[in-house]
Amino acid sequence: MNIKELLKGVKCSCGQVHSCEIKAVVIEAGAVKKVGELSGGYNHILLAADTNTYAVCGDLVKSQLEGRLDDVLVFESEGFLVPNELAIEKLTNKVTDKTDLIIGIGSGVIQDLCKYVSFTEKLPYHIIATAPSMDGYASKGAAMIIGNMKVTYNAHVPEVIIGDTDILKDAPMDMIKSGYGDILGKFSCLNDWKLSHVVNNEYLCDYVYDLTYEMLSKTKDLGPDLLKREETAVKTLMEALIGVGIAMAYVGNSRPASGSEHHLSHFFEVIGIMKNEPYFMHGTDVVFSCVYTQRLREELLLMKEPCVGKKFDKKEWENKIRSVYLDAAEGVIELQNKLGWYEQDKMSVYKAKWEEIKEVLADTPSSCELIGYLKSIDLDIADFEKMYGEEKIQNALWFAKDLKDRYSVLWLYYALCYK
């Protein structure tokens, strides 16, 4: 589907008018040379990047903003830049009373920081993508690490997204793999959306569901071409990532693009940051986790009927959360106490709708098929298992769900299989 058409919005059969406030998306060779033109009308611009992304095109961007660029912030960090309170403060401190636009050069973290700070400061922002690494460019969500918790804030979309394919195809291969993985994760999250629709009667828009699946279908077989950095494949991947972001903007949250596989990814990131342990890039973690969430579905499908797992013991659960989440534990406990989901007995629903639930769970590629997609872009599930180990992965399968207020297969699996 054409992105320009998507930006126009749609009056949907679900009863909503889906809209997206992005003014322009330019994905083409040489797109970065249009920064000056696309930011016309703004005269007090703040530019943000990190050391690596500034090196890609920072000087070229600056040259187009001559006389209109008030300040430049280049984050310097070893390893992954973390979108935490310190990073927010550094960017916010660069905003003045005159600042009328923030332009970010980068991918996940830079765009999250620019999105969050521009929203809190009531400013527009543009993003110049340096890698097709994740699907958040066009979404309203800003994924931050606050108080050691992974928190996604509902902010706003950028006015302009620029994706120069000359730059994108030369991005680090790990970032290209991450973007591909983020798209493949939609097999899992779309299934979770349907599952919650059946179990909880959660709103599900068929149009948005189909739009997201279309982006997935266009991308899933591109692994070999992406490894070769073929420009057409990279452009298709970037368009899919933007399209999924627009799907999220249409419904006002990340439900079409984030489910159990993202909860596992967030778990590994949060624990990794707290313990100073390694973790994969977001989309890579997502697609590895997608294999594991699919294995849960396959295990559940073996049940002829739902059987109650271990009776919930709140004290035991709190102790486990504290041992797993450490400094983030109180925030996790507070969230789940607020939701009250552990006190809800869904067994009657599971029993009444078991055949319908199984029909949903069966509507995904097998874990073996997913591993085939991984191999097509030179990702090995053994690397995931070696990185995290059996105990951490099992903790994620039981307790990653507690990081979020979103129902997924993780809740069903916990209810029926926790021992």
Write the layout of secondary structure elements.
Elements: H1 3-6, E1 10-11, E2 17-18, E3 24-28, H2 35-38, E4 45-50, H3 51-64, E5 69-75, H4 85-92, E6 101-106, H5 108-120, E7 125-129, E8 141-146, E9 149-154, E10 160-164, H6 165-168, H7 173-184, H8 186-200, H9 206-219, H10 223-227, H11 231-251, H12 260-275, H13 282-301, H14 314-325, H15 329-339, H16 347-352, H17 354-361, H18 367-376, H19 381-399, H20 409-417
Parallel strand pairs: 3-10, 4-5, 4-6, 6-7, 7-10
Antiparallel strand pairs: 1-2, 8-9
Helix pairs in contact: 4-5, 7-11, 7-13, 8-17, 9-11, 12-13, 12-19, 13-18, 13-20, 14-15
Can you walk through the features of this model?
With 419 residues, the protein is an alpha/beta fold. The protein has two domains: 3-169, Rossmann fold (3-Layer(aba) Sandwich), CATH 3.40.50.1970; 178-417, Dehydroquinate synthase-like, alpha domain (Up-down Bundle). 54% of the residues lie in helices and 12% in strands. It contains 20 helices and ten strands. The protein has helices at residues 3-6, 35-38, 51-64, 85-92, 108-120, 165-168, 173-184, 186-200, 206-219, 223-227, 231-251, 260-275, 282-301, 314-325, 329-339, 347-352, 354-361, 367-376, 381-399, 409-417; strands at 10-11, 17-18, 24-28, 45-50, 69-75, 101-106, 125-129, 141-146, 149-154, 160-164. The strands form three sheets. Strands 3-10-7-6-4-5 form a six-stranded parallel β-sheet, with helices on both faces. The longest helix is centred in the middle third of the chain and has 21 residues, at 231-251. The termini are far apart. 47% of the residues are buried. The model has no long low-confidence stretch (mean pLDDT 94).
